[in-house]
Amino acid sequence: MTAHAADETLDMLIVGAGISGIGMACYLERLRPNTRYQILEAREDLGGTWDLFRYPGIRSDSDLYTFGFAFKPWTGDNAIADAASILRYLRETTVEYQLTRHIRYGQRVQSANWCSERACWEVIVEDLATREQRSLSCRWLFSAAGYYRYEAGYTPSFPGISRFSGPVIHPQQWPAELDYAGKRIVVIGSGATAVTLVPTLAKTAGHVTLLQRTPSYVLSQPAQDRVALWLRKVLPAMPAYRLSRYKNARLALLFWRFCRRFPTAARRLIHYLTRRALPAAYPVDEHFNPPYQPWDQRLCLIPDGDLFKALRDESASIVTEQIATFTETGITLQSGKTLEADIIVTATGLDVQLFGGIQLSVDRQPVIWKDKVAYKGMMLSEVPNFAFALGYTNASWTLKVSLLCEHFCRLLAHMEAHQYSVCCAKPPANLPTRPLLDFAAGYVQRALDSVPRQGYWEPWLMSMDYFDDIKRLRKEPVTHPDLHFSSSNGKPPGPATDGHANAT
């Protein structure tokens, strides 16, 4: 790790050593190699989500040709990869770009105050091993801490939950020693985690029941991408990877657009594919017919139809009903039906926590998240020299993060060229706003009153179109009338330029 003097001001502090933080550091190494930066990670290892979650079957729900970094080809055989494979990929990236010397583990950023007089962030960091606090300064603060609370997931207040005599487990705290062989398991939930757990547990458990209050849309996707594997055989690694990445990103966007523009047709198509994957008499309408339109919530992708296979061989089943109460031996439903269980898994979602729970302030005035508007999906209104990584909800997370990191490096180059030290986004007066994430998932809806907002037009819009973002973030100027620059002595911005830097 590179040592920095206590009074030295870093160019950038990156919070989080997950896929976004590692990606940002790699872009700095590629495009801004002289940047003095550190990565602070509260946990004892890198990887974020892919190291935190240890439940059986944990895997991506996006293909790794788009979920991987643009600059590092994914060489695994499976496009839908497990957590261990993704962690290996991240560790390889860290070694290749020599990031280890920049990462400090067990360090939690507690608070950060922007000091206008010094034109830097004054950051308070806690060493989680010693509980000692220290301060450091940085010119830019970059949050790559994800969007949810790592300490605990979300579990509703189920009636009688304390009465159940067996273990009640949230996937975010899966015990390594749990023996579920031959056991009766009820998995509560209907999202990606639930549909991942059920077929994996069913291979060993006595029986697994997926208990869902409302259904989700479930689509089968091949675990391997045959086109990508063929391209890898006939082309060099990077061209093959780029073509596969483009193909999958384009297909995902086209399907999303189809679902949004023709929701009834999309619903019928998904219903047809689901019915075809299950036995003729299976009650598809009861268990796979959500009350919302496709892509109002993220679709659940299952590799090679593994959930459908578990339902066909009856090692798993689905019950769509609401819980009346937990009992000593299971769950009683509102219909009066009982589900006997040895283990209950509450795959009931996440608790949203933006920016790692850091308490931000500007000149000692606390930043109220709900009063801020996102600029280009990477900065907040009236918060100088602060940026963050937030990926797509309708495609691979990393597609958006990669573009944001690249654009951010162009922004730094523009500031350096004009000797600016401060950058702040300021929205026009009376800008109409709406929720930051236009998404009906429960974890999003629970947090809407405590997160920033977005506008209805660029650059205050959270774009969900990767190919439009390529034009906006990679090719268009970094300057904008709503983005204000100055030097630490208050020097006003000079004439706008195209703001382009070499970002190949």
Quickly name the level 1 CATH class of the largest domain. Alpha Beta
Q: Tally the helices: what do you get?
A: 13
Name given to the CATH homologous superfamily of the largest domain: FAD/NAD(P)-binding domain
**CA distance, first residue to last residue:** 28 Å
Structural class by secondary-structure content:
alpha/beta
Name the shape in a single word.
globular
CATH architecture of the largest domain: 3-Layer(bba) Sandwich
Radius of gyration: 24 Å
Beta strands, count: 25
Please state roughly what percent of the residues sit in beta strands, choosing from under 5%, 5-15%, 15-25%, 25-35%, 35-45% or over 45%.
15-25%
Under CATH, the topology of the largest domain is which?
FAD/NAD(P)-binding domain
The largest pleated sheet is described as: 9 strands, mixed
Which bin fits the share of residues in helices?
25-40%
Whole-number average pLDDT? 92
Number of domains: 2
Pfam families: FMO-like, NAD_binding_8
Cofactor: FAD
Family: Belongs to the FAD-binding monooxygenase family.
Region (Disordered): 481-504
Give structural notes.
With 504 residues, the protein is an alpha/beta fold. It has two domains: 9-150 and 351-486, FAD/NAD(P)-binding domain, CATH 3.50.50.60; 161-226 and 276-346, 3-Layer(bba) Sandwich (FAD/NAD(P)-binding domain). Helix content is 28%, strand content 22%. It has 13 helices and 25 strands. The chain has helices spanning 19-31, 49-52, 64-67, 83-96, 192-202, 226-234, 237-261, 263-277, 284-287, 306-312, 397-417, 442-445, 466-475; strands at residues 9-15, 37-41, 103-105, 107-115, 120-127, 133-143, 168-169, 184-188, 207-212, 218-221, 300-303, 316-320, 323-326, 330-333, 338-340, 343-346, 359-362, 365-366, 374-375, 379-380, 386-388, 422-425, 434-435, 453-454, 483-486. The strands form seven sheets. Strands 1, 2, 3, 4, 5, 6, 17, 18 and 21 form a nine-stranded mixed β-sheet that branches. Strand 14 (330-333) and strand 15 form a beta hairpin. Helix 7 (237-261) packs across helix 8. The model is unreliable at 1-6 and 490-504 (pLDDT under 50).
